[in-house]
Amino acid sequence: MSDCTHDCGSCGQDCASRITFEKQNEYSSVKKVIGVVSGKGGVGKSLVTSLLAVGMAKRGKDVAILDADITGPSIPKAFGIYGGVQGDENGLYPAISRLGVKVMSSNLLLDNETDPVIWRGPVIAGMVKQFWTDVCWDNVDYMFVDMPPGTGDVPLTVFQSIKLDGIVIVTSPQELVSMIVEKAVKMANKMNVKIFGVVENMSYIKCPDCGREINLFGTSKLNEVAKDFDLKVLGRMPMDAEIAKAVDAGEVETLNAEDYLKSALDAIK
Q: Which fold has domain 23-268?
């Protein structure tokens, strides 16, 4: 609505930007929540989410990841977390990685991690809410929310249900970059959420012989796009076989996030 005051408590309209934040589980104290988003899939949101969490954990912070990509969860595998999670009358308890990162994901609730989640949108959105309200997160300095791509039910549920301190937008260097970023920016602006900046994944590969950066997808347009939307560039991540190998082996915590995302970590601290 053009005359929206963003005071949903006194408004009777059922609009897309209506905000009704859910309460944390009573056994949770989450201080800062950062969403990791993109306008399309396949750009590396889960990788960026994982590295941001690893980076903050190595800075001595209590860190958690809420995996909101219910139908395409990949966070547990990146951290080498397998099996289910425990619960009692107080709620569910997140799995904890070797470095101490707390993780809740739909994969941890399935009998088999390769089982598909074949649910309709409202059910999926409801599970995301429950990850916030029914999980005993205990003390968390930084929670990263790995969002599904796009602007559908689940991203909207996160924006409307969890009070985000801001988002990090992830993109790639292809021609679609402007459209990808614009979708994410417009949604964040509509929901009145701060944007910390943008990270470009698959930005280049480094020649193993001379160290020269090779732009596989052509010259990056990240700086121009960031300027167009008044965004900070928080990092350019390479296509690196060592990164892929570590993630596939469940050893994302062995990577040095500061090498790739120092500016992003500094921006959200």
A: Rossmann fold (3.40.50)
